[in-house]
């Protein structure tokens, strides 16, 4: 059995409002807000990368909880925008934080990454393989954004969130689900070399490329179904869930999920309006924002679901204890 025992986030100092994009592409604040809900996002500094933001999120976690991390024995970093493919970001975090006896692994599952990381951490702790696991979602997406693509460049922001998973006398992880729709791989990708996915031509330019309409349709058609399946798997009803926290990909997706589920939109925390789409960091940011506004609290039953490039999704229901 395991639970989340500490939590922290980090957002860069540079605030980018929608007026920034009016100067470089054909767009407007009204157009961006109406289609995405985004008002601002954060960009990392030129020499600030996923590992730097990961370390800062962990330090915030320590400040919030007072926990010791020197005895952490495994580090999972979930990212689509690593400093470099090798060494992995988790190894850089281990070095920077001076943690001496920790295994390290990066999870490369795009916007579902943080939830996959929680799946893995729970498994490691419950199996007795590890006792103290850091799970970090960290993204430097601005460094992989195509600023000539008016449909996608307005979406992305940089940030990091971190949790600590440890053994517990009571189980706080209630239910899990996950799945992948690889046939849609070409609809959201980041390629440096290979020029095709599923036999379809793609652009290997090292930038995020998205078929927004296809991803939107897939998300609003499938994620509500997966949420219902997860709730049923847990032996619960939607009335038992205090908050549903999906990946903050687009405010219109959040609203569509609420409508499809007939679930109050005010009980679906988001980070998209203030921080943009931060991929694997979006769910931690949404929790932190909700807590600041008097929302998510200790004892709440929350459902988190990430979804994105793959296309893949992962969900979890937890009893929040912070």
Tell me the layout of helices and strands.
Blueprint: E1 2-10, E2 14-17, H1 19-22, H2 29-36, E3 40-43, H3 50-65, E4 74-78, H4 89-97, E5 103-107, H5 113-126, E6 133-140, E7 158-167, E8 173-180, E9 188-190, E10 196-197, E11 200-201, E12 208-210, H6 212-233, E13 243-246, H7 251-261, H8 272-275, H9 282-292, E14 301-308, E15 312-319
Give a summary of the structure in a few sentences.
The protein is α+β, with helices and mostly antiparallel strands and 322 residues long. The chain folds into two domains: 2-167, Thiolase/Chalcone synthase (Peroxisomal Thiolase, Chain A, domain 1), CATH 3.40.47; 173-319, Peroxisomal Thiolase, Chain A, domain 1 (3-Layer(aba) Sandwich).
Shape designation = globular
- Largest sheet at a glance? 5 strands, mixed
Please report the number of helical segments. Answer: 9
Q: Which topology of the largest domain does CATH recognise?
A: Peroxisomal Thiolase, Chain A, domain 1
**What percentage of amino acids are in beta strands?**
25-35%
CATH class of the largest domain: Alpha Beta
Estimated structural class: alpha+beta
Name the CATH architecture of the largest domain.
Answer: 3-Layer(aba) Sandwich
Rg: 18 Å
Overall pLDDT metric: 97
What is the number of domains? 2
Question: How many E strands?
Answer: 15
Termini Cα gap: 17 Å
Report the CATH superfamily of the largest domain.
Thiolase/Chalcone synthase
């Amino acid at each position: 059995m395991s639970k989340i025992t500490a939590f922290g986030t980090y957002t860069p100092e540079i605030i980018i409002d929608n007026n920034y994009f009016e100067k470089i592409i054909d767009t407007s604040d009204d157009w961006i807000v109406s289609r995405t809900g985004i008002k601002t996002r954060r960009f990392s500094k030129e020499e600030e990368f996923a590992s730097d933001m990961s370390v800062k999120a962990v330090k915030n976690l320590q400040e919030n909880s007072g926990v010791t991390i020197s005895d952490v024995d495994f580090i999972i970093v979930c990212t689509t925008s690593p400093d470099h493919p090798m060494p992995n970001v988790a190894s850089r975090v281990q070095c920077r934080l001076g943690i001496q006896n920790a295994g390290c692994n990066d999870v490369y599952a795009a916007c579902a990454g943080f939830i996959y990381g929680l799946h893995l951490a729970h498994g490691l702790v419950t199996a007795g393989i590890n006792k103290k696991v850091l799970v970090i979602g960290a993204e430097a997406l601005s460094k992989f954004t195509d600023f000539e693509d008016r449909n996608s460049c307005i979406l992305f922001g940089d940030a990091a969130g971190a949790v600590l998973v440890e053994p517990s006398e009571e189980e706080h992880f209630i239910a899990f689900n996950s799945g992948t729709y690889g046939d849609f791989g070409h609809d959201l990708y980041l390629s440096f070399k290979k020029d095709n996915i599923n036999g379809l031509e793609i652009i290997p330019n090292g930038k995020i490329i998205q078929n927004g309409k296809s991803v939107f349709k897939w998300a609003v058609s499938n994620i509500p179904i997966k949420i219902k399946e997860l709730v049923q798997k847990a032996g619960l009803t939607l009335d038992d869930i205090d908050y549903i926290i999906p990946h903050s990909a687009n405010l219109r997706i959040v609203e569509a999920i609420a409508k499809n589920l007939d679930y109050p939109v005010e009980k679906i925390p988001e980070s998209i309006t203030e921080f943009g789409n931060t991929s694997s960091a979006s769910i931690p940011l949404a929790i932190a924002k909700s807590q600041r506004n008097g929302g998510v609290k200790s004892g709440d039953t929350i459902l988190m679901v990430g979804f994105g490039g793959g296309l893949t999704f992962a969900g979890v229901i937890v009893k929040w204890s912070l």
